[in-house]
Amino acid sequence: MSVWLHFINVVVPISIIKEKLKVDFDEFYENYSEGIKYHDKYLFATGAMGSGHIEQIVKYFESKGLTTIELIDGKEHFKDLCVVEVLFGGPTRPCNWLEFNSRESSAWLKGTEKGELVIPEVFKNQNKEK
């Protein structure tokens, strides 16, 4: 499966949420209120239109124990989460666990099938109204 991306996104593997936050994913998902939320089988995604809101989302995850950046060969890479900007062509830093398709504005966990695209309900409803 894959997640649809819009504007600026924060993508986190569900396995990292379970491991680092030590919570049931369904409980986390129900209580998450930092932005639009949706997920496929492997990835949790949230996003916003502005970088200020994305910074708040990243700080939220950092406050929960996730590590944003790690150095690999002296270069910054995303570790537990990934910030992806659709208009600028994908992850804002290398992200070794994420596959990205700019034509379809989609991402999926590396090593899994791309499969069906998950789109947030709020965007599905907007497309039906047009």
Helices and strands in order:
Layout: E1 2-4, E2 8-13, H1 14-21, H2 25-31, E3 36-39, E4 43-48, H3 51-63, E5 69-72, E6 75-78, E7 82-85, E8 90-91, E9 98-101, E10 106-109, E11 117-118, H4 121-129
Parallel strand pairs: 1-11
Antiparallel strand pairs: 1-10, 2-4, 2-7, 3-4, 5-6, 7-8, 9-10
Strand arrangement across the biggest beta sheet: 3-4-2-7-8
| Helical run tally | 4
User: Sheet bearing the most strands, described?
Assistant: 5 strands, antiparallel
How many structural domains can be distinguished in the coordinates?
Answer: 1
The separation of the N and C termini measures 26 Å
Output the radius of gyration. 14 Å
Shape label:
globular
Q: What is the N-to-C succession of helices and strands?
A: EEHHEEHEEEEEEEH
Beta-strand percentage? 25-35%
The number of E-state strands comes to: 11
Mean pLDDT: 91
Q: Approximately how much helix is present in the residues? A: 25-40%
Low-confidence stretches: none
Structural class computed from helices and strand pairing: alpha+beta
